[in-house]
Amino acid sequence: MTELIDGVRTAVAARTDWSGTAELVADQLRRHLPTPAVLTAQQRLGSPDRYTSHTLYVEPDSSFSIIALVWRPGQLTRIHDHVTWCVFGVIQGTEHEELYDADLNLVGRSDNHTGDVRGFAPPGDIHRVHNTGDTTAISLHIYGTDVTRIGTSARRFYN
């Protein structure tokens, strides 16, 4: 994780706009995407009740945090957007993502497989993530804030 953390720190220090930062961080995550071994065996199991998150790192100045999300089959998020830029990389399984416009019209779908990395920034970041597979999926998310301090990466939830 040291090389990833150093790379993200360098990307954030470039002080570009949120979209540019997301692109720079995504490049670093592609170069340094860890394996599921970054989590303990117990953490990799997830929860039968809902997807789980594990904080892996928070930058001391709160400029970014790295969180692992574990999704058992069928688990999903609500439709939401974010408080800041976000980059994610799938390290196990497949995550299905649905993208929405500001009127909550479905505008795109994608299946993100192991090794896939994507980044985005508000506005235009309304989405829902769903494990549509029959095995556990794990992804690493890097947010442009300390999500442990603010409690969530979501800015709003939509019905």
TrEMBL record:
Matching Gene3D superfamilies: Jelly Rolls
GO molecular function: ferrous iron binding; oxidoreductase activity, acting on single donors with incorporation of molecular oxygen, incorporation of two atoms of oxygen
Residues that coordinate or bind Fe cation: 80, 82, 127
InterPro entries in the record: CDO_1 (IPR010300), RmlC-like_jellyroll (IPR014710), RmlC_Cupin_sf (IPR011051)
Keywords, ordered alphabetically: Dioxygenase, Iron, Metal-binding, Oxidoreductase, Thioether bond
Keyword Oxidoreductase part of the UniProt annotation: yes
Similarity annotation: Belongs to the cysteine dioxygenase family.
Protein name, UniProt field: Putative metal-dependent enzyme (Double-stranded beta helix superfamily)
Organism expressing this protein natively: Kribbella voronezhensis
Organism lineage: Bacteria, Bacillati, Actinomycetota, Actinomycetes, Propionibacteriales
